[in-house]
């Protein structure tokens, strides 16, 4: 036999191993069985996920799964189940060795992958990424079975590929060695089916589609698993420390969210050993939030000098929204490290017991929302002290663990415990595994301590059937009076009727009323049912409470029922106001002022805010008088709020017209107030962007089509108000002046009447300041703020904005010459005052637009002769100094024009900002020396530091420290020899300072004059640098 035939026989032998899979029935049966099991389990896991999502309880992550998303999941699950059943029947028929069904199975698999599996995987990935509170075991099960299915399909695909390659060769080999009769015997039906499978022209494309779909599934499953790991390990709960005194929130750390969370406090006062105290559960904080209550924990450490023992008092305090509170406390004796014994609390006022240290921690939970999907826990730490003695500070660290508390009993928590959130911890505030506990003392956290009876529990459940059963049981008891038991209150002063109102259960409310619940509150000082009703959003229930209860409001010690009407939805608050007014609840002026101030702090997007404020003002005018000072002031604030907030938010004047129709509109009376109001239309946020809406708002403000013009009733003030509105809406667009002229012409004003100089001079007396101060302090600061906002948002190019600023100032100079800096005046003082108009934290003085304005309109007119004789307010100079020293580009620009003005800022050491770094201080010292030398007409370096600085005038500690650092650095610099290059720079720059081009007004800056010198560019750059480095 030839070598070629031998090789062919070896190949036949190898191919028989590959095709053994198809020849052996038990291997084919095993493969089909595994495939069927995986398909069934995969479909079942999909429905497990749908069921888990349907039963999901709203948790820390915002909102439930939407119905649309659930519907999509069900739809794709039905598609997946349909194709899986079809594939199941095809696999069963494949057992009969109908191999040509294989290509149909692959087609069905591809359709199933693209129409069901991939969309389902995308939806599951979205759920795992965006709904972290939903962690279903079905995700892991489904992903695992899909991976198994992929492996199985890829393996059989590999086998089929090898079978296809070897099938033709096997057929040819048989043709060589077998006669025609044997060949015909092999040409049976199975062999035909196999050949049909291999010869199909669609087979490569089907294989490519199958592999592509399987690859996409692998990517999506890996994505789902990664999201599952993130949801288990990443933070879904954000912790913040709240500092009430400083009014800021500091993010401390971010940990995992586990539903069963217990919060611990680390005590590291003993540096050699660290231990943890158990405070409370996060679940309890969340449950208290639902009833508008907060919890605080008081932990104090005492020492008993008589018994020579250390004591710890642990106290939990719950503060309710009605200014009531309840508390639990327990005392523990420290036997040794991490070993405690609960004891009866001694009298801590005993002189032998002294407080070592203590702390009070208040916890507040902020619910998630659409903008913030994670719940926030705020906690505020208050140190406990006695008398004037300050308690030793120690670090505070919070931590929480899952399932670390061992409960006293193994019984399930009662309904009350789940409602109230107390765990009946066996460990109190400490660890649970090494405590000496007196069993008879373990009643501090039990539900019976709250004084709740079965009827209270039934009302807490929110089930009217439970309440009905309890009432029937009470009526059946001959030894109890049903009415008395229904009116019985718990230790928090709540009866079952109040609890049912808190739950919003109208049916239970009706049942309790019919059973004899308390309705007569004419002789009491408080009405808990009314407080509970006003705290809810159930209007029908609140109306029935007011109709049912008999209340003598004149006797009540509580006077803030009106404040309780304020809700997130102000349309509900409006109904409550009308209900209280209908029932003649006393209403005093201070309550009106408080409600008005509270509502005016809300955003204009708050539902029902416009109607609420109109009714609030109308009711106040009806009760008292519009001429009453407090009412008039509140109506002014309401009118201002409508103009500032609601008009730009709604982008129309409908709210103002409604206010005018009600007779409540009181417009601002001065130009400065109008500017403050209208400036909020365009800063710090651009509310109106469409030019046609902007134009319509300006026309409505001018009452173009209305008569009389009541929006701005003062005709002399109207053109200036329109000027402000155009600045707020159209500036810095190039057509803003044309827009102002157009609207003034439409309002029938002559050119003289809307001349800016005339308007500013007319209202300068009302402003109690000069025309120059009003323009630069108020109008210019707003205009440049708008310009910087447009530049930062890149809405216009920097060159266009600078041209608009030039146009604004040139227009103002043309119509009001008093605004323009004059050569004969002390323009450096105007620049210093202009810098002081911006707060110290404002970055506008360092912006390119501001530097452009200063360069064009102020610095060229500054005379060095006026600087020495100037007398500027110390606070004004301090703010200006902070801006100049923070903005290095501005400082260099000022020094280029006037070394004396730069020296005035730099020598003012007591006002140097704290945030100046060490490197920046060295740069400032270099410029300080340059300013002194170049401003003093002598080409020599000073030997005495006091010539440059008044160091002895600074007395506080910080100034003394800066004094010493400046003294040391300057002394070292002055004592060291100077290079010839530096002396040349000093000489050249000083001569240029003396030149007529630099000293005559308008002056040219030093850097521009140096660039005109016939020197090499490298030398020019060295001379331009304002720093005198050696």
What report would you give on this structure?
An eight-stranded mixed sheet has the order 2-1-10-9-5-6-7-8. It is 54% helix and 10% strand. Helix 4 (67-94) runs antiparallel to helix 5 (101-130) and helix 24 runs parallel beside helix 26 (718-729). Residues 1-19, 57-63, 168-199, 230-261, 269-274, 387-449 and 951-958 have low confidence and may be disordered. It has five domains: 3-232; 235-450, no CATH class; 559-666; 667-820, no CATH class; 874-1024, no CATH class. The termini are far apart. The relative contact order is 0.03. The chain is built from 41 helices and 13 strands. The chain has 1030 residues and is of the alpha+beta class. It is extended, with a radius of gyration of 42 Å. Keywords: Membrane, Transmembrane, Transmembrane helix. The chain crosses the membrane at residues 26-49, 69-94, 101-127, 133-156, 208-232. InterPro entries: Ankyrin_rpt (IPR002110), Ankyrin_rpt-contain_sf (IPR036770). Pfam families: Ank_2.
Layout: helices, strands, pairs:
Elements: H1 3-18, H2 20-23, H3 25-54, H4 67-94, H5 101-130, H6 137-177, H7 180-186, H8 189-199, H9 203-233, E1 235-243, E2 248-256, E3 261-267, E4 275-281, H10 282-290, E5 294-304, E6 309-319, E7 325-336, E8 339-343, E9 353-366, E10 375-383, E11 397-402, H11 415-420, H12 454-461, H13 464-476, H14 482-486, H15 496-502, H16 506-514, E12 520-521, H17 528-534, H18 539-548, E13 550-551, H19 570-582, H20 589-599, H21 609-623, H22 629-650, H23 654-661, H24 671-679, H25 691-702, H26 718-729, H27 736-746, H28 756-767, H29 771-792, H30 798-815, H31 827-836, H32 848-857, H33 874-886, H34 888-897, H35 899-906, H36 918-935, H37 957-975, H38 980-994, H39 996-999, H40 1006-1011, H41 1017-1024
Parallel strand pairs: 1-10, 12-13
Antiparallel strand pairs: 1-2, 3-4, 3-11, 5-6, 5-9, 6-7, 7-8, 9-10
Helix pairs in contact: 1-6, 3-4, 3-6, 4-5, 5-9, 6-9, 12-13, 12-15, 13-16, 15-16, 15-17, 17-18, 18-19, 19-21, 20-21, 20-22, 21-22, 22-23, 24-26, 25-26, 26-27, 29-30, 31-33, 34-35, 35-36, 36-38
């Amino acid at each position: 036999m030839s070598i070629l035939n031998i090789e062919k026989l070896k190949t036949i032998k190898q191919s028989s191993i590959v095709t053994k899979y198809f020849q052996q029935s038990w291997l084919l049966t095993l493969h089909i069985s595994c495939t069927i099991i995986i398909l069934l389990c995969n479909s079942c896991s999909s429905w497990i996920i749908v069921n888990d999502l349907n039963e999901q309880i709203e948790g820390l992550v915002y909102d439930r799964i939407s119905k649309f998303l659930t519907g999509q999941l069900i739809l794709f699950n039905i598609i997946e189940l349909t194709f899986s059943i079809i594939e199941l029947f095809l696999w069963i028929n494949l057992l009969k060795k109908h191999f040509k069904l294989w290509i149909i199975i692959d087609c069905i698999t591809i359709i199933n992958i693209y129409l069901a599996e991939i969309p389902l995987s995308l939806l599951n990935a979205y759920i795992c990424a965006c709904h972290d509170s939903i962690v279903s075991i079905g995700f892991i099960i489904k992903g695992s079975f899909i991976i198994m299915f992929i492996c199985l399909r890829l393996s059989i695909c590999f086998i089929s590929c090898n079978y296809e390659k070897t099938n033709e060769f096997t057929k040819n080999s048989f043709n060589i060695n077998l006669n025609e009769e044997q060949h015909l015997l092999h040409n049976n039906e199975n062999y035909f089916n196999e050949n049909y499978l291999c010869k199909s022209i669609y087979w490569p494309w089907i294989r490519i589609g199958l592999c592509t779909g399987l690859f996409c599934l692998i990517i999506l499953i890996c994505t789902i698993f990664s999201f599952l790991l993130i949801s288990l390990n990443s933070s879904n709960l954000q912790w913040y420390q709240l500092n009430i005194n400083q009014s800021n929130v500091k993010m401390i750390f971010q940990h995992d969210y586990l539903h069963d969370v217990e919060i611990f406090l680390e005590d590291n006062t003993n540096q050699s050993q660290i231990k943890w105290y158990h405070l409370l559960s996060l679940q309890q904080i969340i449950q208290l939030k639902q009833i508008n209550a907060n919890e605080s924990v008081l932990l104090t450490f005492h020492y008993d000098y008589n018994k020579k023992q250390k004591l710890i008092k642990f106290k939990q305090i719950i503060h309710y929204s009605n200014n009531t509170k309840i508390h639990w406390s327990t005392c523990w004796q420290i036997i040794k490290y991490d070993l405690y014994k609960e004891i009866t609390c001694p009298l801590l006022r005993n002189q032998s017991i002294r407080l070592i240290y203590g702390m009070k921690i208040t916890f507040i939970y902020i619910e998630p929302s659409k903008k913030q999907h994670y719940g926030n826990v705020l906690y505020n730490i208050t140190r406990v002290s006695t008398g004037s003695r300050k308690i030793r500070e120690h670090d505070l660290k919070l931590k929480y663990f899952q399932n670390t508390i061992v409960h006293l009993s193994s019984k399930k928590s009662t309904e009350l415990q789940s409602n109230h959130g107390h765990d009946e911890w066996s460990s109190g505030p400490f660890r649970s595994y090494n405590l000496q506990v007196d069993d008879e003392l373990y009643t501090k956290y039990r539900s019976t301590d709250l004084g709740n009876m079965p009827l209270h529990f039934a009302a807490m459940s929110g089930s009217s059937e439970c309440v009905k059963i309890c009432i029937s049981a009470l009526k059946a008891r001959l030894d109890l009076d049903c009415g008395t038991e229904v009116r019985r209150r718990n230790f928090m002063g709540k009866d079952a009727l109040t609890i049912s109102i808190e739950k919003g259960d109208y049916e239970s409310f009706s049942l309790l009323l019919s059973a004899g619940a308390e309705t007569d509150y004419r002789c009491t000082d408080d009405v808990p049912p009314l407080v509970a009703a006003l705290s809810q959003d159930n209007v029908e229930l609140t109306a029935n409470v007011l109709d049912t209860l008999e209340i003598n409001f004149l006797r009540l010690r509580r006077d803030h029922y009106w404040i309780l009407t304020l809700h997130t939805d102000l349309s509900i608050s409006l109904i409550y106001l009308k209900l209280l007014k209908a029932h003649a609840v006393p209403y005093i002026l201070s309550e009106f002022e408080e409600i008005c101030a509270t509502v005016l702090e809300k955003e204009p997007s708050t539902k029902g805010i416009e109607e609420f404020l109109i009714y609030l003002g109308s009711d106040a005018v009806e009760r008292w008088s519009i001429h009453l000072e407090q009412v008039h002031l509140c109506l002014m604030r309401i009118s201002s709020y409508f103009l500032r907030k609601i008009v730009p938010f709604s982008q129309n004047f409908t709210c103002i017209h409604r206010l005018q129709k009600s007779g409540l509109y009181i417009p601002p009376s001065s130009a400065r107030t109008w500017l403050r109001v209208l400036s909020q239309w365009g800063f710090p946020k651009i509310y109106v962007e469409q030019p046609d809406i902007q134009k319509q708002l300006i026309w409505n403000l001018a009452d173009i089509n209305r008569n009389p013009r009541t929006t701005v009733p003062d005709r002399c003030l109207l053109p200036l108000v329109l000027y402000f509105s155009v600045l707020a809406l159209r500036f810095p667009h190039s057509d803003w002046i044309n827009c102002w002229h157009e609207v003034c012409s439409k309002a029938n004003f002559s050119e003289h009447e809307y001349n800016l100089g005339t308007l500013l001079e007319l209202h300068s007396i009302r402003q109690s300041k000069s025309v120059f101060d009003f323009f630069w302090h108020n109008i210019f600061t707003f205009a440049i703020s708008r310009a910087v906002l447009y530049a930062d948002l890149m809405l216009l190019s920097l060159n266009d904005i600078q041209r608009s600023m030039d146009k604004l100032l040139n227009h103002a100079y043309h119509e009001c010459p008093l605004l323009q800096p004059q050569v004969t005046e002390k323009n450096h003082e105007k620049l210093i005052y202009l810098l002081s108009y911006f707060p110290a934290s404002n970055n506008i003085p360092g912006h390119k637009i501001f530097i452009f304005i200063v360069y064009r309109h102020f610095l060229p007119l500054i005379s060095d002769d006026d600087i020495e004789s100037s007398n500027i307010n110390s606070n004004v100079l301090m703010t200006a100094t902070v801006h100049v020293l923070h903005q290095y580009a501005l400082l260099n620009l000022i020094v280029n024009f006037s070394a004396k003005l730069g020296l005035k800022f730099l020598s003012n050491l007591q006002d140097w900002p704290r945030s100046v770094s060490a490197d920046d201080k060295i740069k400032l010292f270099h410029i300080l020396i340059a300013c002194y030398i170049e401003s003093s007409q002598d080409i020599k370096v000073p030997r005495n530091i006091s010539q440059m600085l008044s160091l002895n005038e600074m007395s506080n500690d910080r100034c003394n420290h800066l004094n010493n650092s400046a003294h040391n650095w300057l002394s070292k610099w002055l004592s060291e020899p100077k290079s010839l290059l530096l002396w040349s720079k000093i000489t050249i720059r000083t001569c240029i300072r003396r030149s007529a081009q630099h000293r005559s007004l308008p002056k040219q800056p030093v850097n521009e004059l140096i660039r005109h010198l016939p020197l090499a560019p490298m030398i020019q750059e060295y001379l331009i640098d304002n720093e005198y480095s050696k």
